[in-house]
Design a protein that fits this description.
The chain is of the alpha/beta class. It has three domains: about 10-255, HUPs (Rossmann fold); about 265-335 and about 465-540, Glutamyl-trna Synthetase, Domain 2 (Glutamyl-tRNA Synthetase, domain 2), CATH 1.10.1160.10; about 340-455, Beta Barrel (Ribosomal Protein L25, Chain P), CATH 2.40.240.10. Helix content is about 25%, strand content about 25%. The protein contains twelve helices and 27 strands. Bound molecules: adenosine-5'-triphosphate and magnesium ion (2 copies). Adenosine-5'-triphosphate (ATP) binds near residues 33, 42 and 257. One of its GO terms (biological process) is glutamyl-tRNA aminoacylation.
Length: about 550
């Protein structure tokens, strides 16, 4: 990999190792909430956590942050594991915050015993009002002066299920005058009579993020707990709980979350696109989800390269989607076999080529890859080319076909257009050409030099395929930051389906997940919707950078 200077987290880790902190041990974790499919923002966090551990001889835990029973599901647990594996990482342990519910409960009891937590029956509105504002100190609610014994009793009864949802909460006894609002007696537990996807009905009280996360890190002895910038104001609370409990001192570090143009990075919003049918599912190739990118044809290496290139920042920024496209192009240019497919076919008849003759041409699979071999491409007197490669009245510098113009057919011959036919509505139906027998590719003795080379398929040998062309999911750069419903900014043309593209016969052996360069058209992958009768291709990316311009 490329030489680069250390990012700020690597610097911290190297200092810790040099100082012998935690015996020089590095243990990170990736802590998804299983309430949706992972997106490319999570990929950044995964790459960061796993690569840091790899680089410093450490390990990474996968911990499901499953403290909110209502929105969580095993479907999401499974998809998250699949996505991490696909990215190429192996976690040391698969863990669940819900496995710590008993331990977290005991931690809460310890804090009550130290008079550092209390049960409050004030309503959310009363609690909010009593908290004050950053400039106005908070005031205690009546419950704050309750005795330790009464708090222990009430908290035990909360657990037993004696109260309804929202009737009581457990709060930390923090500092009601703190300029940091998170320290003004934050909630630790709430009552929720809900079925949990792992613990079932064992619990009706659930810990809040702030009380679960740091303690879970500590239980696992995580050395570097890396999260996004919005958690900076939570860090004093993270440290406070650990200090008061006297448990392993995990430490939180924050980096800038990934934001990407023309898409959104929020499971809460992505789930709306799925549930309301704006896309075909979590793995719709237009989605910024890891499963969507995978189906679209992105490779694990391209996603990892993207995450490495964007680096680790301390300030929020907006990354252009075209950087991810650059990464996949870099890779596929070297690895993807070249093939010919015509997306918008128009017929060409070669008038001086025998009607009953079929020539089998040898086509190189990939000029960028040594030993990639050749394949057989049949050539005959009736072909299809792209409609856009012909102009009835050729523009200046149009080096393709038009009356009198000559062009090279890739791997084959130079042909010159003589005439053409149109239908009643003026569409070109057939182009008539002559070919130059002595201009055969690899053995050209014609002495002719033509500027353009175009792709084609032989009419009798081509197969039909469906091709799906994708564009940005949203038509504005920052749909999440616009006023109004983000869904009103969906790009209505984000999917264009070409029902009857024509592909060269060698392609019919392709399997779901295979990737190709369709000459001049971009990189494509075979979609899982393919059937033996008809292949379906997704365009991964065009050949040239057409985005962000
Ligand atoms: P969302 O708002 O999409 O639900 P989240 O942060 O609530 O995201 P989690 O499942 O809690 O989702 O995230 C797991 C980990 O991934 C966290 O450590 C979180 O900080 C990180 N993460 C989430 N989104 C991004 C992002 N856009 N860029 C970098 N890291 C992210
Ligand atoms: Mg979260
Ligand atoms: Mg979330």
């Amino acid at each position: 990999s490329e030489e680069r200077s250390l990012n700020f987290i690597e610097q911290i880790i190297e200092e810790d190792i040099a100082a012998g902190t935690h015996g020089g041990r590095v243990l990170t974790r990736f802590p998804p909430e299983p309430n949706g499919y992972l997106h490319i923002g999570h990929a950044k966090s995964i790459c960061l956590n796993f690569s840091l551990a790899q680089k410093y001889g450490g390990k990474t835990n996968l911990r499901f942050d499953d403290t909110n029973p209502v929105k969580e599901d095993v479907e999401y647990v499974d998809s998250i594991k699949e996505d991490i594996k696909w990215l190429g990482f192996e976690w040391a342990q698969e863990l669940y915050a819900s496995d710590y519910f008993e331990q977290l409960y005991q931690f809460a009891v310890q804090l009550i015993e130290k008079d550092l937590a209390y049960v409050d029956e004030a309503t959310p509105e009363q609690i909010a009002a009593a908290k004050g504002s950053p400039t106005v100190p908070g005031t205690p609610t009546p419950a704050r002066s309750r005795s330790i014994a009464d708090n222990l009793d009430l908290f035990a009864r909360m657990r037993k299920g004696e109260f309804k949802d929202g009737e009581k909460v457990l709060r930390a006894k923090g500092d009601l005058a703190s300029p940091n609002m998170h320290l003004r007696d934050p909630l630790m537990y709430r009552i929720k009579h809900a079925h949990h996807h792992r613990t079932g009905d064992a619990w009706c009280i659930y810990p809040m993020y702030d009380f679960a996360h740091g303690q879970s890190d500590s239980i696992e002895q995580i050395t570097h707990s890396i999260c996004t910038l919005e958690f900076i104001p939570h860090r004093p609370l993270y440290d406070w709980f650990i200090a008061q409990l006297g448990i392993f001192p995990s430490h939180q570090y924050e980096f800038a979350r990934l934001n990407m143009s023309y898409t959104i990075m929020s499971k809460r919003k992505l789930i709306q696109l799925v549930q309301e049918g704006h896309v075909r599912g979590w793995d719709d190739p237009r989605m910024p989800t890891i499963s969507g990118l995978r189906r679209r044809g992105f490779t694990p290496a391209s996603v990892r390269m993207f995450c490495e290139r964007i680096g680790v920042q301390k300030r929020d920024n907006l990354i252009d989607f075209s950087l991810l496209e650059f990464c996949i192009r870099e890779e596929l240019n070297k690895t993807a076999p070249r093939v010919m497919a015509v997306l918008d076919p128009v017929k060409v008849v070669i008038t001086n080529y025998p009607a009953d003759k079929v020539e089998i041409l040898q086509a190189e699979n990939n000029p960028e890859e040594e030993n990639s071999g050749t394949r057989e491409v049949p050539f005959s007197n009736t072909l299809y080319i792209e409609r856009e490669d012909f102009m009835e009245v050729p523009a200046k510098k149009f080096f393709r076909l038009g009356p009198g113009l000559a062009v090279r057919l890739k791997y084959a011959y130079v042909v010159q257009c003589e005439t053409f036919e149109k239908d009643a509505s003026g569409n070109i139906t057939t182009i008539f050409c002559r070919y130059l027998p002595e201009s055969k590719s690899g053995n050209d003795t014609s002495g002719l030099s033509v500027k353009g080379t175009i792709h084609w398929v032989s009419a009798a040998h081509a197969h039909q395929a469906e091709v799906r062309l994708y564009d940005r999911l949203f038509s504005v750069a920052e749909p999440g930051n616009e006023e109004g419903d983000f869904k009103s900014f969906l790009n209505p043309d984000s999917l264009q389906v070409v029902e009857n593209a024509l592909i060269e016969p060698a392609l019919t052996k392709a399997r779901a997940g295979d990737r190709f360069q369709f000459l001049r058209k971009g990189y494509f992958t075979v979609d899982v919707d393919s059937s033996p009768e008809k292949l379906v291709f997704n365009r991964i990316v065009t050949l040239k950078d057409t985005w962000a311009k």
